Structure formats: C-alpha cells, structure tokens
C-alpha cells in the first residue's frame, strides 16, 4: 500500500456549546469546503493530487470550540462560513501523521439537529439515505464525498456555472422510495467503505442535478 492510499482529508466543524450550528448547515458547509479545495487547491496541489490519485477519498470530521478552534484555524487550511456553520478544511495528510492540534480533537459526539424548517433545495442536491442512522460528523464526511463525486462528474462549463453560484449545495434526506430511484438513475452515489458507524458498501448519499443524470454507470 503506498502513501497516497493512506491519506485523509481533515475537516473541522466549529461547535460552541452556546451556539451549535444547524445540522443541515454543517453538512452543506462541509461539502462546500471540499468543493473549495477541489476547485482551487492553491499551494496544496501536490497533497490534493496524492490524496485523489487512488480514488480513496477518505475524510474525517472532528469538532472544536473555543481555543481548540483558534488553534485549528492557525494551521494551514480554509474556512467556509455557511449560515450557522463554520467548517475548516485542511490539506490532506497521511492517516497516521495528523498535525497535533488536529489529532487531539474529538471525532465522536458530533451530534447536531435542525431546529427550523428547511428552505427549498437547489441543485446540486445531496440526498441522504433515509434508512441509515449517521452522526452529524459521519454525515458531513459523506456529504463531502457526494459533492466530490458530483464535481468529478461535471464538465468544465458545468463547474464554471457552479462556481458562479458560489459552489453551493443543498443537503436533504430523501424519501425511501425516492432514494432507491436516485441510486438507479446513473447519478453519483456514495458507497461507504465501512470504517465507522455503518456497513461496508452502504449507499449513504446520492448527488442529484439536472446535468448529472446518466453520468455514472448504474449499479
């Protein structure tokens, strides 16, 4: 196994006790943070290429607050602010060589809820599998996967138009019958590797946009 197969993309979500983000905002912010790095890796081009080269796009979401968030923000990376959520994406790192101030952050316990009604969804929509129970951190990583697969499946003109809209996405939970149809529609589908929480091979998210239909081979 080479080093690129052992790399991971770190994401950190800010969760202050007094004002945690809405769950959907956090999912969308995570996806947008991933898209920001894919669209413009800047000085991290080599790390991004190494991470993507095998197609094993592993992501880990950790949570921070207060001084933890300030330390994470001082490390190389990029913060996306989206409504109530702040998510910072850091350049890919070897799985066993996280920066100390990221490695000490907690993965578990990232539980968030939506306290209000969600607005209309706008494409691309990242549809979560209603039959799976995922923590907010797990769902954020999976939403990031879905956004990345949608980016890969889009052509240059579609990416340009997406960029003009701010690389926004909508994250929603699909109805059971709708999710099965989406999986079969030739859209980008996330199948989990099974490292945490759910069974290997589970379909966690589908990315839907008018231009994405039929872009991916049906299962």
UniProtKB/TrEMBL annotation:
InterPro entries to which the protein is assigned, alphabetical: Pep_tRNA_hydro_II_dom_sf (IPR023476), PTH2 (IPR002833)
**Assigned keywords, A-Z:** Hydrolase
For this protein, the Enzyme Commission number is 3.1.1.29
Q: Which reaction does it catalyse?
A: an N-acyl-L-alpha-aminoacyl-tRNA + H2O = an N-acyl-L-amino acid + a tRNA + H(+)
Question: What enzyme class is recorded for this protein?
Answer: hydrolase
Q: Do you know which SUPFAM superfamilies this protein is assigned to?
A: Peptidyl-tRNA hydrolase II (SSF102462)
* Record GO terms (molecular function): peptidyl-tRNA hydrolase activity
So where does this one cross the membrane?
Answer: none
- Supply the name of the protein: peptidyl-tRNA hydrolase
